[in-house]
Amino acid sequence: MLAVRELTQTILAKKSGWSSEIYKKIARHWQLYILIAFPTAFLITFNYIPMLGVQIAFKNYSFVKGFWKSPWAGMEYFNSFFSSPYFWPVVKNTLRISIYTLLVATPMPIFLALCLNEVKHERYKRFVQMFTYKTYLLQNSLNLGTSEIIATYVYKIGLLNANYSFAVAVGLFNSFIGFILVLSMNFIAGKVSDTSLF
Amino acid sequence: MLSKSIIRESYGDKLFLVLVYTFLAIILITVLYPLWFVVISSFSSSDAVIQGEVWFWPVRPTLFGYEAVFKYPMIWRSYSNTIVYTASGSAISVLLSIMMAYPLSKPTFYGKKVFIWALLFALMFHGGLIPFYLTVKSLGMINTMWALILPPALNIFSVFIAKTFFQTTISKDLYESTQIDGCGDIGFIWRMVIPLSMPIIAVLFLWAAVTSWNSYFSALVFLNTKELFPLQLILREILVLNDIANGGMNLSPEEYKKFEDMRTLLKYSVIVFASFPILCLYPFLQRYFVKGVMLGSLKE
């Protein structure tokens, strides 16, 4: 009798250990886990699976074989991009857009907000606010006719000519430049002001 | 107003304020004038637009640009397509944001950190266009309306804004009192969180709607049947591809010449035509807009 009681006690003690603790925490909010499952499915499908797909920049992609089973191609597509006539225009375009964003597009709204903060005339303030927001909303339709950007270039060679791997290599190189730029800006920010992202 | 303030401002302050006011006035003009120019040009005669006579008022007013836009094949079909895509896409997007943001706003939600890091990582790194396209393709969504609605539905920025909003406005006491009354988590969201979060929901909806209304690139990539094209793609066709005469309108050479002249004009009417609904939506949501952004931006 005593042995049975001891046994159940040890089992209970074990149950209230690590795993059942987590189980309790999850069970308490089980409805929330059902809810979060839907957006998580979207996150995995449309963000993480394409991320895995980046490997086709180093592969000879074939649609039949998919991301994983296509044969490796090494740096072939990068080399052909580096020697293509589009290389320098694409690099310059990327740098120009990034530097413009950094110097003009980011400080401008902050400066505008600071100025608006100084204005005490309510109606004038509201008027300026309303129309500056409005153009933000309209931006896209006004810019329809603008020049070629990297995304459209990737689209052209990648999807129209079905040259998937090459296009991914271009895209990957492009984000690589962007990443280097962010890192160097972060480094400068850290040196100048002690504030940095990481 | 300035004169009502008790403390008198020094000359330096006054000068500063004058500078601020003029700066904002200049910004306002540079922002407003292009808008105004587009509107008046769309009502002016095409010769006047081409010769640069249009400056502040419509010159020799005409509605021909709009007539041409209205007559363009597929324009109404694409309009209704865009409305369907925008309405359903934004609704799904807002719904997903809430479903993700609410659990993450609860401190007692186990595994919260994993989800947050997964979101942040996805915010920083992208697969890029081609892998994205191939994923959508393998799901069989190419050339269906789902390709425009589902892939962009989860907006990570919206999730974080909604999460911060829930953290700051939905109190723990409220949650506990509903629990005592026997309300589950989903019931709490439905009966309490959503009604209390209308400002942020309006903001997220407006953002999603504007993005979806203006987007043409994903339609360009994913669709190839004209019956499915959204408005922006048809507009792009009118503006960029210049194939009005080939658009199945059967014009006589004379009419064709007239159409060629109208192209500049058409450009402006098209922009007004496409932006109109968004401008109509804006005033209704505007009162939430500034407030909602501010509330969401607060961090604890």
Description:
The complex is a heterodimer of chains A (198) and B (300). Chain A is mostly helical. Chain A has helices spanning 2-15, 18-28, 30-52, 66-69, 76-82, 87-105, 107-118, 122-142, 150-160, 164-193. The interface between A and B is large, with 67 and 79 residues.
The biggest beta sheet of chain B reads:
none
Helical content of chain B (DSSP H or I, runs of 4+) = over 70%
Helix-strand category of chain B: mainly alpha
How many distinct beta strands of chain B? Answer: 0
End-to-end CA span of chain B: 34 Å
Order of helices and strands of chain B: HHHHHHHHHHHHHH
Please provide the count of β strands of chain A: 0
How many angstroms separate the termini of chain A? 61 Å
Net shape of chain A: flat
What is this entry, summarized?
Chain A is 77% helix and 0% strand. With 198 residues, chain A is mainly alpha-helical.
Reconstruct the topology from this structure:
The complex is a heterodimer of chains A (198) and B (300).
Chain A: H1 2-15, H2 18-28, H3 30-52, H4 66-69, H5 76-82, H6 87-105, H7 107-118, H8 122-142, H9 150-160, H10 164-193
Chain B: H1 11-43, H2 46-50, H3 64-71, H4 75-105, H5 112-124, H6 129-138, H7 146-149, H8 156-169, H9 172-180, H10 185-196, H11 198-214, H12 217-222, H13 231-241, H14 253-297
